[in-house]
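Researcher: Can you fold this with iron/sulfur cluster in place?
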Amino acid sequence: MTTTSESMEKQSADPVAREVLKKAQDAGMETAYSRHADQEPRCGFGNLGLCCRICDMGPCRINPFPGEGPRRGVCGATAETIAARHLIRQVAAGVAAHSDHGHDVVKTLRLAAQGKAQGYSIKDPQRLLDLAKEWGVKTEGREIADVAIEMADAALREFNNQEGEIRYPALRAPEATVKNWRERGILPVGVEHEIVETLHRTHEGVDADYVNLIMHGLRTSMGDGWAGAMLATDFGDILFGSPKPVRSQVNLGVLKADEVNIVVHGHEPTLSEMVVAASRDKELLDLAASKGAKGILVGGICCTANEILMRQGAPVVGNFLHQELALATGAVDVMLVDVQCIMPALVEHAEKFHTKVITTSKKARIPGAEHIPFDEAQAYDIARRIVRTAIENFPNRRVVDIPAGKTDLVAGFTVQNTFQHLGGRYRSTFRPLNDGIISGRLRGVAAVIGCNTVKKTQDDSHLKMVKELLANDVLVVMTGCAATACAKAGLLQPEAAEKWAGAGLREICEAVGIPPVLHLGSCVDNSRILVALCEMIKEGGLGDKLSDLPIAGAAPEAMCEKAIAIGFYCVASGAYVNYSPAMRVLGSPVLTRFLTEDIEAIVGGKFNFEDDPIKAAHLMMAHMDKKRAALKLRPLMYAASFLTDGKDAPTAAPETAARAERPDPGPAQPARGCAGKRS
Ligand code: SF4
Ligand code: MSK
């Protein structure tokens, strides 16, 4: 691949990434971008979702064009059946990934409470007690460890329940939404139950009805957002401590030439938390000094980064497409990986750049990597061994070339802390947010989440979409690699409100003291967004079901099955979701219409597959405006300020007559019924 400045612009919107990529590619290093080019042209049938290899009579493919060509597979499966079957298998895989993560966090908490997990303790006992109260578990007069064990046992049952329904929806979601879920039959019995059923339904010769298949996909996905991921977040907060707003830095420039650099990559917080602790161990710091290093830096990539950023303030080395670039700096002494989003190609680079790639999970081994099996019982000892390996490798560095670029950020927002200081010490209140929307200062809230993909310019869609939303008075919440993309561009700083936000959003940010883009954590922490939406309904004035809210979601650079699962549970929860690049369904216009239109009448949410991030932002805002009109909310206070190309900050805040004649927001509307009670 030639590295002209034009081709670099197409690869990444991040100038720091482009700098490293150019050097790497000029030096002949293979990257995801060059491998992506090698894969072209892609199979059109596969892209459109019209290839089936579920049974050994296949693979079969469907001709989507007029004229000659098969319209059915050997068994008679249609385009709709084939595309829907494969799509919900992807949903099931995404749900499994998040839920297995959640399962492991709960298990670790149980072991910690039993004194069997070395180095772990219950860092936020109040969060445990609050959760126990919510779940109806007795706490008075009991040891905190006893409560933790009972809660962990109850949580583990969420995974393999065989009857009833998962517990969080009835506890947290609005009554009207839960009622609809029950009527539509999309509340899961248990996480694993629905995954198993997905695999059964999609086996050759079982479910051939695309509507029935997609409805089960929605039910399966609910086991992610409203069980597996929600448990990962709640129990992660209990075990590792609830995040608080924290300052840190992001991008490859956080790596240090004169320190031992350990990059943790993947998704789970269990081992990375211990590695951060071990990096502060006096004996290991002394050992590092003896090798000529001034310290030990632990930074992260992908969602492991977000986990230790949110709770420890650890710097973020980058998002998904930064993983190979980090090695190309020659400054990474150990790349420690657990599960998910890890490119096997890392091991090949490691040899060139002295880096040791260490795998730790029995579920995720890579040929050629050193494997140090993780075991909670000896977690701290294992973390020390890994840190020691990095220190021993420090003197083996060859050429080190770390770019200067890094950006300040603020992260660590949660449902509990975002508005806490306005509601007093013990109760957060969403009143300022609801009032902002009701009064027309804010248009609505958008969740922009998900990955990077080589099919789109790295970070570009995230940045264009988020800037467009901010300029139009939409508060943006983010998780995962999307959050890292915006952090690199400076959007996660309080000052970003002054630069990017429309007048109404700016007023809210200044009044509450928050950035216009709130980083809520890793991919499993999308569950925080679901809980925040429930709190908005509970606070009152914005309808009585989740689908009434003027909100929208987007995954503008989606890459993996987990993103599909998230999209599904957001739509099931009543959200409008723009997903790009499109899921592999476009070969079936019937299935595409069901996902993008018909499904709205069933669950209140729907998908859209617009690739252009600005157009997608406008569609998201049109949806918010539709919801505002249905709620009979006041007109927006400030004129729209569409950016058109997403590059430039709004030239002038819409200092229009609207600002001078700001309408009185009026009294808050009363709270309507919410099924659960949360303090
Ligand atoms: Fe072909 Fe049907 Fe087998 Fe799929 S399940 S590979 S469409 S015969
Ligand atoms: S890490 S799932 S690339 S967001 Fe969660 Fe990033 Fe997507 Fe992995």
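Model: Folded with iron/sulfur cluster in place. The chain is about 50% helix and 10% strand.
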